[in-house]
Request: fold
Amino acid sequence: MNTKYLIIGNSAGGVGAAEAIRQIDRRGTLTIVSDEPYPAYSRPCISHYLAGECSLEGMLFRPADFYEKNGSTALLGKGVTHLDLVGRKAKLADGQEIAWENLLLATGGTPIFPAIKGSDRQGVFTFTTLDDAKKIREFLKDVSQAVVIGGGLIGISVAEALTKCGLKVVIVEMKERVLNTILDERGSSLVAERLGQAGLRIVTGHTVAEIWGARHGLVKGVTLDSGEDIPCGLVVMAIGVTPRLELVKDSQIKLNRGIVVDRHMATSISDVYACGDVAEAYDLVYEANRLTPIWPNAYLGGRVAGGNMAGVEAKYTGGTAMNALNYFGLAMVSAGLVSPQNGDCEVLSRQYGQSYRKLVLKEGRLAGMVFVGDIEPSGIFFDLLKEGVSVADFKQSLLETDFGLACLPSALWKKKLEVPSKGSSAAEPEIVRSR
Amino acid sequence: MMKVHVREEICMGCGLCEVFCRVEHSESKDLVRAFKQEKALPRVRVERRKPLFLSVQCRHCSEPPCVYACLSGALQKDDSTGKVSIDSGKCIGCWTCMMACPLGAIRRDEVRHVAVKCDLCPNREVPVCVANCPNEALVYAEESQ
Reply:
């Protein structure tokens, strides 16, 4: 078959691209291929699914008639086995060949599966797809204790879900603290405290040296590098994800850690785009290309790619690590640089009862932030960070509990609230630096 | 599209928009119950930085960052009306929209564990905040006046 647009991947990036394409081009043939058999579902919801809090229908990212309404062909449960980026052809597992004009690689990430002795035992899982969650749920019946390897976003999500299922859970994190890449020390310790209150045990600074079990292959426990044995019937590997590059690794496409894309989400090969966890796109805090494998960036990157694929120029303003967390009811937000290592950053922080706010300033502009508890105003700060606004003129108000739009220079809040400035033209206020 | 606009030169920060919004978005529609029992939240926020007062609510952005950031698909923009709304049945309370909203216009309903925002009062011709603003600092119009 022939298609004008081929999207490989049916998650945030793929949906973002399909929606952007259809806003521009209602007619061009659009084909979405995924090796997963499900309509687009919310990947972050798999922990809710595991905890029994929602069904597949409840976790659909778009209504069931999404593909039909979009006039797209969804080839689900059919992985691409071979991709010819120059000849513009894709071959599917069932032998079908697709000739495309524009391609989006939204293949996502693959969970990292470290070579630990015994990791081939029955009862060792990863946790990035709905099928992973289904498999774990089926396996849970006879299990009362679990070990989660990795204290990052995936690890804590699965640990929370398993706890809700009634299991005793131990998280083993190699580094000194959980969520060490996205939170500062204080944030990590608040999460650890909350997890402890919920009955989880966290072991930091150690790794799992061996997964052991009965002769017939079932997991019975793990041994840490400290020599400690922890009995468990289930192990989840949650160390992270790595870009899923198998379709392009033998091609001429420019790769670094992921597929390198420019600000149009275009790869080094013409009419081939990439977004999401597989792509290395512009990070506005680091001012360089970087992997930021998070859902909102995948969707945004997909939108940008889709616009360009359909012929209307769109530019990725840049993403950065940005996460809102809600573990056992503890609300948190983090973005950008949260633990600056060198002295060129200024840190403002304040504790307000149960709430905490930390702002990292670099050259008078926001480069990072952590909010705990009262997170409602965090969007105003994230917008200042994203837009590169100089905060020098209102720095003293940044830590005030009632910080809001009214603290900003009038040109800025007027623009946000769509209040016309009297007698002024539509010129951009000078304090906004374009990134 | 029709939106609520604030006239900052007239807004005096009385907060009645918050009060009426809270009651409108309660089950009981009773002032005291909405506050004390239901803990219903207003979808509008009054900022007071003398001499500036602002009533802030969702702009139903043409390129809505909250919709683009939503992890579950609960936030959607209606193509025909332009309205940005949250399907509370689909909201998982992850709060990602909160950090995406440049206005801080999304609130965290801790009782119901969902995000809430201005819905332009679907059961009314004119949003309740506008209808009850004592000095007409809030207007419901296509363009700001």
Summary: Chain B touches chain A through 38 residues (CB under 8 Å). Residues 108 and 139 of chain B are 26 Å apart (CA to CA). Chain B has two domains: 1-57+122-140, 60-117. The radius of gyration of chain B is 15 Å.
